[in-house]
Write a structure and sequence with these properties.
Keywords: Cell membrane, Membrane, Transmembrane, Transmembrane helix. With 393 residues, this protein is an all-alpha fold. The protein contains 16 helices and four strands. It has two domains: 83 residues, no CATH class; 275 residues, no CATH class. The radius of gyration is 21 Å and the shape is globular.
């Protein structure tokens, strides 16, 4: 029988099916974002079920932080790989993403079908303000987790936040510069030498986005852009938000800021990985085909960046220079999320009522640590409907 070296407690054998069924349930019920989801995995898989050792969990978490892509999804894929190789990684990854993907499809179809209804616009009027508060809290959590008391990382995050807020776009050069600066700082500290270097039949409205049926070129653009998003975004799933806004709103003009904010809101109110917002965006742009293309393009790089290096992970896991580079990129991503929160907040919070909703939401989620975030979102949605009914825009 396997043994957890960190605690000398015997590990309980598990199969790929066991792990997949666990992540199917977590994907359907796990709220709170990537940090919370990683915490659930540690509690359930290491402490309670004892399917994995503490060291396996730490190795998976470190690999998920080192490689680009959404942290929670990559950690799930790593657990699948640890028990079932590439096939296990594939099955577990699909199990984790599938529940929230299906929920998002339903919400996206309703959004496209009934967007003009007053009650739906009212709901997103309230939810949009609440989401800004949730993003503020998430930025605070990410800063505590990834920046700690490192002045260099805080400086990188601050510059990234200012650049994102000023330009209203994410610049890849800032991320690379952040990684390089952190790497140089680490080398100075350690005085170490440089490291070696598809569409199915469905009603027309289900296959069309907000602008009607999409062309083949639009689907190709979706595929390439979301592949970039999955391949170049580090850390929390929220790190993808500023990157997506740059392309979805500014570069391609697929959505306006309000529609993009609604997509982020949907990701916040559904369980599973936050990055599933890509499926909602894809549906708004190109219907069901767009949702499938966007989701596959985003998660495939995540799969490759987890499964391919996993067997060789120990060779570079303790490379301090590489870790410093990743920390710098993560700091820049945290700053970009803060800047994107400011940009989106200017559009979501534009009158006294939305200010009250945002501040009240922030107060509630800060004061009551175990508050159910989806219930907060539902409450603010109902409040938004009532406010719009009493005082139409």
């Amino acid at each position: 029988m396997m043994t957890d070296e960190s605690s000398e407690r015997p590990l309980v054998p598990c199969t790929t099916r066991d792990v997949a069924m666990y992540f199917l349930r977590l994907g359907a019920t796990g709220f709170g974002g990537p940090v919370a989801l990683a915490g659930y995995m540690q509690r359930d898989l290491v402490e309670e079920r004892r399917w994995f050792s503490k060291q396996e969990y730490l190795d998976g978490l470190a690999l998920a932080q080192l490689a680009p892509g959404p942290l929670a999804a990559q950690l799930a894929i790593y657990f699948g790989w640890a028990r079932g190789g590439a096939w296990g990684a594939t099955v577990v990854g699909l199990a984790f993403v599938l529940p929230s993907f299906l929920m998002v499809l339903v919400l996206a179809a309703l959004y496209v079908r009934f967007e003009g209804l007053t009650w739906m616009r009212g709901a997103f009027y309230g939810i949009g303000a609440a989401v800004i508060a949730l993003m503020v809290r998430s930025v605070h959590k990410l800063a505590k987790l990834s920046l700690a008391k490192d002045r260099v990382l805080w400086g990188i995050a601050g510059v990234s936040a200012l650049v994102t807020a000023w330009t209203e776009s994410e610049m890849l050069a800032v991320f690379v510069a952040g990684g390089a600066i952190a790497m140089i700082a680490q080398r100075v500290r350690d005085r170490a030498p440089p490291a070696a270097a598809m569409l199915v039949w469905a009603p027309d409205w289900l296959l069309a986005g907000l602008a009607g049926p999409a062309s083949g070129s639009t689907l190709w653009n979706l595929a390439w852009y979301f592949t970039e998003a999955g391949a170049f975004v580090f850390g929390s799933g929220l790190a993808i938000v500023p990157f997506l806004r740059t392309g979805v709103v500014e570069r391609f003009g697929w959505l306006d800021d309000q529609q993009f904010l609604d997509a982020v809101a949907v990701a916040m109110i559904t369980p599973g990985p936050v990055v599933i917002t890509v499926a909602f965006i894809g549906f708004l742009v190109a219907g069901l085909g767009g949702a499938v293309v966007a989701a596959l393009a985003t998660f495939l790089p995540c799969w490759f960046f987890t499964v391919l290096p996993a067997p060789h992970y120990q060779r570079f896991a303790r490379n301090t220079t590489l870790r410093a580079f990743v920390l710098g990129v993560t700091a820049a991503a945290t700053g970009a999320i803060a800047g994107a929160t400011f940009v989106l907040g200017r559009r979501a919070i534009g009158d006294p009522w939305t200010i009250v909703i945002a501040l009240a939401t922030l107060a509630v989620i800060t004061r009551f640590k175990k508050v159910n975030e989806p219930m907060v979102i539902v409450a603010t949605g109902v409040l938004g409907i009532a406010l719009r009914a009493l005082w139409p825009a």
